[in-house]
Write a structure and sequence with these properties.
alpha/beta; globular; Rossmann fold; single chain; SDR_fam; about 110 residues; 4 helices; EC 1.1.1.1
């Protein structure tokens, strides 16, 4: 039976993971679980730098650029995950979103 602590090869994604809590979550996932861990961030340079920092710690994470405010970015990564792995097992949605005042009605009634 697969559990999060077994060697089943789960596929993890952490959004907004190039620093702070998201980076810490990726660090823990890489050190405690088998499987693929994707560190995603809006800024490619910062995301790649975070992956390099993890490598220096002896940890292995993969990077993919992802902007959760951009539908095309979400669809691109989603299709990649479906094609490559058949989907995703664990999502940690850590990325922050800024509410735009002129679109506030979309968030209030969602």
């Amino acid at each position: 039976m697969c559990t999060p602590t077994s060697n089943c090869g789960f596929h993890h994604q952490v959004t907004g993971a190039n620093k702070g809590i998201g980076f810490g979550i990726v660090q823990e996932l890489c050190s405690k679980f088998d499987g693929v861990v994707y560190l995603t961030a809006r800024d490619e340079d910062r995301g790649l730098a975070a992956v390099d920092e993890l490598k220096k710690m002896g940890l292995s994470a993969r990077f993919h650029q992802l902007d959760i405010d951009c539908k095309e970015s979400i669809l691109k990564f989603s299709e990649y995950l479906k094609k490559t792995y058949g989907g995703l097992d664990v999502l940690v949605n850590n990325a922050g979103m800024a509410f735009k005042v002129h679109n506030l009605h979309l968030y209030l009634y969602a």
